[in-house]
Amino acid sequence: MSRTNVPSQIALSDAAILRGQLKHSWLENEVLNISIETVISLWRRGGSNLGVRYAARTRDLQHLTDSLAESFSPARLVDTLEPFSGLSAEDKSAVKAAVHAAYLESSDILALQAPLKVAAAGMEAVLQELSRAWLLLQPGGECAVRAAWEGVCDKAGALIVELERLPKGLELP
Amino acid sequence: MDYFYFDHRGNNSALPWLEELVTLISDGNCSLMRSAPSQPRGKWICFAHTGVGTRQTQRDFETATAPRARFVVLVSSHFLTQQSKCDQVHCLCHPLESVHAHLNNNPEILKRFQQSCDAGAPEWHLLTPHSLTETLVAAYLLRLAQKRGVQVDETKLPEQFTDKVSEEYLKLTGQVAAWPDLTKEDIASAFSAIR
Lengths: 173, 195
Hints:
- The complex is a heterodimer of chains A (173) and B (195).
- By secondary structure, chain A is mostly helical.
- Chain A is 72% helix and 0% strand.
- The model of chain A is unreliable at 1-11 (pLDDT under 50).
- Chain B is 41% helix and 13% strand.
- Chain B has helices at 15-25, 55-64, 96-105, 107-118, 134-147, 161-173, 184-193; strands spanning 2-7, 30-32, 44-49, 70-75, 89-92.
- Chain B has a 5-stranded parallel sheet, with helices on both faces.
- In chain B, helix 1 packs parallel to helix 3 (96-105).
- Chain B starts with a strand and ends with a helix.
- The interface between A and B is large, with 45 and 46 residues.
């Protein structure tokens, strides 16, 4: 029996969920809402290197950036909507291509990609700096970690601006 | 029924929308639950944003709902893949702003939800904005592709596809429209409501 309602997962899309997790769970909760004193305290105790820990998030970010148009395209629905389940692979592929082309024409998704890449690269650079500073010892280490964390917060702010420009879900062409 | 809202961080950006939503649902009789979740006692429903990496908080809430008159709505897109197995725990994956707008714009649905809470059997589905049916989305995308020259074998579509499209569109909007005349404008507002 086919479902009546479009589940929220279809409307949100994996990319929209990832966008939300990067912006909210990582950049807001794990970066901007963490005080510099907490970071320094973690460094003094020999806690895990935040620059290294956040590398996984930058990989997620890279994945989102690289597949931006495909991830937010309603063409993805063709594979999941029940009424299309009986179509041949060729027919599905043709419908997907047409829907994706219409989406690219009607949206500014590709224009959002370049600034997001720049913001992501900026974040990656400051995280590498933080990662290096984390390995330094006192007395110079603390100043270096403070400076690097400031850079991370700056880039987090810039990245949030770009992530907020992304769609919150799939959009029809 | 007492209404609460909870956020795993007091300064989280989700907090203002949580407060707005629960204030609406409770007619202003709600309060912030400061620690999760042994307090308070009695019958309550709590909208809780527990965040990523706070599984213990989620478990605490699930344990606290053991008495039948306690309910928790876990608010986070993170729970899309971690649906709770507890009967009294509901996972709300929609943006709070959308849910608030949906209830605010539909007082009869809001009232029905409040009544169901008071009766001890919250109708969770009422929190969810109207969704487009799969049939309507499929019909729109198919028509879009056909307008671009794509030909598909329509015998492979579900039986009575055209009738279903009209029927579901009527159910959703109260208007009559027949596929393939369905336009983007016909369904855009409903589609955006579930984003």
